[in-house]
């Protein structure tokens, strides 16, 4: 079991903001921003899996991409393996790429249909290493073995594979350069239930084998409970709650986490009779025009006056448990230091 | 099963649908039989490619023919066989006596007409209402599915609604003419969990108010556990198990159902160290199956499974499973 206290921080994200400008009119005047990620801070420790959950449009994928600088973040700092990458220039960033990789959601769209499997898995090797073609092919075979693809498939094209196998190709490509940190952006969302389990088990095996650190982005709360060590819940561009997995699922503190967990239908008919369901009313507000005060105040079942006025801080309420909610005021003195050192 | 004259809302026997492609035939639905009792909610579960959508589409004649071809079977609805009905007869039934909800509310609503027009269309066509009567009923329907400020929103276009609201509009259209049977094909799959919870509550509420029979297609066992009365599990174009919902979750008898239930993680209860997987891939359905379609992935497979395609054996009250292996005795079934 992973232990937070003994590990070092591999990824440190501080006050990350990612705004997409809205331009209107014939002059494309800058009239507003879509605040996709609006000030998130968290750490990922070496060897752990941080689950990032939330509904669609809450900014979880944008956050994952911004951390790898696939977008230019508007503000904030991102340190990966001790190196600040939020403002690094392009050439230095390129040298950093081998340590951080990504597995994408749609294995159909993220693989070039005109490249063979060997070409796809070998591309990062030819870009970032100076291996001879023999050694490169040996490495490609090694990677195919690691993700459970038959070596005979090396010269086939992506369309010849099923969804689960395609996702294995995507994972092999991400592993090619021995990364330390992999962002998995909904890697199982496009797969069938019985195939999801295969891919999740593979990701767990690879983590153990190569000592990988994952940011696992998903909307599937039950799968995140299985794979993650700690879980961050995002709502409308902000992290509502971040806690170790067992504590979050057993005792959610933020009203949004509670509602989200109670909305997950359990595969057990008798659980549905006894379930005390909190059904949230309404929809998520637009990130271009978030409500004043707490982002969740328009749908919160426990809303108070203060929630419409002041946006709650994201702080540590118990060791390891961070919440942004007025129901859980800042009680510990050290919390502020821990959240923003 | 009782004989054919019983008042089932829908009675499907021996349905077989084949797609003709350039690379040969695909036998998407093989000898599927089921019935739907008035007022019940039948859940249909299966992975993609298991034939659950194609079954429902073929019985109401919504598949493009060619390439599809319904080779066999009868679909009795209100004393009429839908498979032999003319296009005109089918048009009079679809949208009026049988309502449909599809997965993606964005692509199933027409973006160039306002939602009022789209709700009023079946009302005027099937129920013969005039414009103002249809408008009043459209407002009542939008109220029923929980869209606030219904009268004003009639003139809004689909893109002005959120995903959950669009699905509510789809439900309103499906319910427009008081259908006897509602076919819902993955109606909540494209929605977020909190919105899905809203739609599920709405459906439970509407069932009590309107009392129609519903076929609910999904791959989500959690959704099925919450709303279905009876469940039908499909695999490789066939029905592999059928039982009342509690019975199915408590005593699954087909190895596929058993493994499927073990595969799914949960947000409560004990957390398993490692997920159970079903190794391998679903079968390619290139010809009429002569063996059990699940054989290649089944831990209990033995020689008979390769020679014969198992029929659906009765394994309990109102419970059948298409498997030669008897889970209770741990030995092959003696039939």
Descriptive overview:
- The complex is a heterodimer of chains A (341) and B (335).
- Chain A is α/β, with parallel strands linked by helices.
- Chain A has helices at 60-67, 90-96, 117-128, 133-146, 163-175, 193-210, 221-227, 245-250, 255-263, 269-274, 305-309, 335-339; strands spanning 9-24, 29-45, 49-53, 75-80, 83-84, 100-103, 181-185, 213-218, 230-235, 238-244, 315-318, 321-323.
- In chain A, the strands form two sheets. An eight-stranded mixed beta sheet of chain A has the order 6-7-8-3-9-10-12-11, sandwiched between helices.
- In chain A, a hairpin with a 2-residue loop joins strand 9 (230-235) and strand 10 (238-244).
- Chain B is built from twelve helices and 14 strands.
- The relative contact order of chain B is 0.13.
- In chain B, strand 1 (10-21) and strand 2 form a beta hairpin.
- The two termini of chain B are 19 Å apart.
- Chain B is globular and about 65 Å long.
- By secondary structure, chain B is α/β, with parallel strands linked by helices.
- An eight-stranded mixed beta sheet of chain B has the order 6-7-8-3-9-10-12-11, sandwiched between helices.
- The A-B interface holds A 55-56, 162, 164, 192-194, 196-198, 200-201, 204, 219, 221-223, 225-226, 246, 249, 259-272, 277, 279-281, 283-284 and B 47-48, 162, 164-165, 192-198, 200-201, 219-226, 245-246, 249, 259-261, 263-268, 271-272, 274-279, 281-282.
Structural class estimated from helices and strands of chain B: alpha/beta
What is the strand arrangement across the widest sheet of chain A?
6-7-8-3-9-10-12-11
Total number of helices of chain B: 12
Helix content of chain B: 25-40%
Largest interface: A-B, 41 and 44 residues
Give the topology string of chain A: H per helix, E per strand.
EEEHEEHEHHHEHEHEEHHHHEEH
């Amino acid at each position: 079991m992973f232990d937070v206290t003994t590990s070092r921080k591999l990824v440190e994200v501080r006050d990350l903001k990612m705004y997409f400008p809205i331009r209107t009119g014939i002059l494309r005047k800058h009239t507003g921003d879509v605040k996709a990620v609006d000030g998130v801070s968290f750490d990922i420790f070496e060897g752990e899996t941080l689950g990032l959950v939330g509904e669609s449009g809450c900014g979880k994928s944008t956050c994952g991409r911004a951390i790898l600088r696939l977008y230019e973040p508007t503000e904030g700092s991102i340190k990966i393996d001790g190196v600040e990458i939020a403002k690094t220039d392009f050439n230095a960033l390129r040298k950093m790429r081998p340590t951080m990789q990504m597995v994408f959601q749609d294995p159909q769209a993220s693989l070039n249909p005109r490249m063979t499997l060997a070409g796809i898995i070998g591309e990062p090797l030819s870009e970032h290493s100076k291996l001879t073609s023999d050694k490169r092919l040996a490495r490609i075979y090694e990677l195919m073995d690691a993700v459970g693809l038959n070596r005979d498939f090396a010269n086939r094209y992506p369309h010849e594979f099923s969804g689960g196998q395609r996702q294995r190709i995507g994972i092999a490509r991400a592993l090619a350069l021995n990364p330390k940190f992999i962002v998995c952006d909904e890697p199982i969302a496009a797969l069938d239930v019985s195939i999801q389990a295969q891919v999740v088990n593979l990701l767990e095996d690879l983590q153990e084998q190569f000592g990988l650190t994952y940011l696992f982005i998903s909307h599937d709360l039950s799968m995140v409970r299985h794979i993650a060590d700690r879980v961050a819940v995002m709502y409308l561009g902000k992290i509502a709650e971040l806690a170790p997995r067992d504590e979050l699922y057993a005792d959610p503190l933020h009203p949004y986490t509670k509602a989200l967990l109670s909305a997950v239908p359990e595969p057990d008919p008798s659980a549905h009779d006894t379930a005390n369901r909190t059904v949230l009313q309404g929809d998520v507000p637009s990130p271009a025009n978030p409500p004043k005060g707490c982002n969740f105040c328009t749908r919160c079942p426990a809303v108070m006056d203060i929630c419409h006025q002041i946006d709650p801080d994201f702080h540590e309420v118990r060791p390891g448990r961070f919440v942004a909610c007025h129901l859980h005021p800042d009680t510990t003195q050290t919390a502020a230091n821990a959240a923003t050192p | 099963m009782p004989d054919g004259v019983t008042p089932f809302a829908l009675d499907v026997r021996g349905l077989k649908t084949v797609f003709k492609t350039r690379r040969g035939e695909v036998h998407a639905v093989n000898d599927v039989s089921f019935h739907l009792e008035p007022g019940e909610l039948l859940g249909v579960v299966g992975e993609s490619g298991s034939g659950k959508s194609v079954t429902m589409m073929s019985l109401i004649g919504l598949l493009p023919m060619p390439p599809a071809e319904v080779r066999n079977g009868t679909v009795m609805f209100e004393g009429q066989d839908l498979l032999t009905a003319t296009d005109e007869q089918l048009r009079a039934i679809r949208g009026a006596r049988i309502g449909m909800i599809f997965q993606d509310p964005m692509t199933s609503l027409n973006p160039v007409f306002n939602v009022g027009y789209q709700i009023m269309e079946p009302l005027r066509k099937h129920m013969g209402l005039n414009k103002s009567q249809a408008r009043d009923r459209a407002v009542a329907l939008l109220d029923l599915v929980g869209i606030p400020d219904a009268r004003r929103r009639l003139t809004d276009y689909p893109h002005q609604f959120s995903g959950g609201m669009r699905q509510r509009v789809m439900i309103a259209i499906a319910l427009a003419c008081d259908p006897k049977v509602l076919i819902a094909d993955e109606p909540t799959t494209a929605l977020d969990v909190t919105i899905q919870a809203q739609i599920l509550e709405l459906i439970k509420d509407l069932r009590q108010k309107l009392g129609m029979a519903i076929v609910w297609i999904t791959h989500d066992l959690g959704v099925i556990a919450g709303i279905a009365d009876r469940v039908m599990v499909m695999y490789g174009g066939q029905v592999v198990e059928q039982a009342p919902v509690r019975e199915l979750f408590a005593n699954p008898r087909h190895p596929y159902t058993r493994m499927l239930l073990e595969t799914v993680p949960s947000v409560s209860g004990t957390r398993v160290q490692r997920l159970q997987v079903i190794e391998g891939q679903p079968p390619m359905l290139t010809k009429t199956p002569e063996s059990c379609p699940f054989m290649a992935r089944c831990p209990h497979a033995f020689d008979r499974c390769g020679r014969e395609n198992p029929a659906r054996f009765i394994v309990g009250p109102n419970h059948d499973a298409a498997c030669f292996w008897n889970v209770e005795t741990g030995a092959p079934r003696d039939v």
